[in-house]
Amino acid sequence: MSHLAAAAEQGFLSPTGVEIAFLLVGIATLGAAVVTVTTKQLVHAALWLVVALGGLAVEYLLLTAEFIAWVQVLIYVGSVVVLLLFGLMLTKAPIGRSPDADSGNRWAALTVAVAAAAALVWVVVDAFRTQWIDLDGPAQGSTRVTGEFLFQHWVLPFEALSVLLLAALVGAIVLSRKSDNDKEQR
Amino acid sequence: MHLAYPAVLAALLFCTGLYGVLARRNAILVLMSVELMLNAVNLNLVAFDVWLRDTLHAGQALTLFTIAIAAAEIGIGLSIVLMVYRNRGTSDVDKLRDTAEGPAADDEASAMADKAAQEAAQKAEAAA
User: Are B33 and B17 in contact, with CB atoms under 8 Å apart?
Assistant: First the structure.
């Protein structure tokens, strides 16, 4: 019941330094995400996605999950965004503004998103109003801790995941390879 | 730290991604929005793992698995989008309506698809 004790000590109107940093980085992350889904320049969307994902890495650091923060930088900022940029280039995406980046159901999408956001934020705030995360003590996601729990308790899923990655690799190669039948038909 | 900060941020990021998935027309931009949604879920997992002080650290392990699966998903998704682009000459999800039911005549649709495929083939050969 340490949470209740922590809740009694802390107030809503006295944010700590970590909370202020989290809030500022969160606003930047959310702004970058909004620009990502609304900008009409396709390449800029990928570059704003880098800002959003990097901001999330900083949030992981503030939550003391260091290893996940660096994995986020390596995998998402390093490879996923590069893959997306490759995809944009290979599909000959226009470099300038493309007026048809959004489809016609934009207003329906906006309605659904705003309704979902209102419902989720209301439920989450109502449910966790009196809960505090205790960030004191040793980091809970340092590389040592991560290695220990990953290879003590999660070895089998980890190995299964490597098989999945191999299958995805082979599948991507098979899908993007030009088959010999195509050439004969031409 | 108050638990509401990461939870609310994750909810808002998820809804931003939801808007992108529904409103975007280019398939690659849809994939970007899916990445945003997955990242919102990851933030939730990490925040609740740190909050619960789980000895198994299920949240952080699941986050690592989600990141790996997202990388696999983006690879497969992009190769599918590239194949569609090569066959149809477009990656706009609005224009891929072959399986849609509607008043559009089948002959016209298939003729247009053939024409687009020929154009794509010519483009590919020209590029090669």
Answer: yes
Interface with chain A: mutation pick from B31, B33, B36, B37, highest number of A CBs within 10 Å: B36
Give one word for B89, left, alpha or beta, with left for phi > 0 and alpha for psi -120 to 50. left
Q: Name A102's bridge partners.
A: B24
Which of A80, A103, A157 has the CB atom closest to B94's CB atom?
A: A103
Q: Given CA atoms B89, B94, B100, B104 in this order, what sign does their dihedral have?
A: negative
Whose CA is closest to A67, among A146, A138, A137?
Answer: A146
**For A159-185, what is the mean pLDDT?**
82
Condensed to tens digits (0 to 9), the pLDDT of residues B68-80 reads 999 999 999 999 9
Chain A CB contacts of B78 below 8 Å: 83-84, 86-87, 172
List the CATH number of the domain containing B38: 1.10.287.3510
> Which CATH code is given to the segment(s) A2-99+106-139?
1.20.120.1200
Q: Are A26 and A18 in contact (CB under 8 A)?
A: no
Residue B24 three-state SS: strand
d(CA B82, CA B89): 10
- Tell whether B122 lies on the interface with A, counting CB pairs under 8 A: no
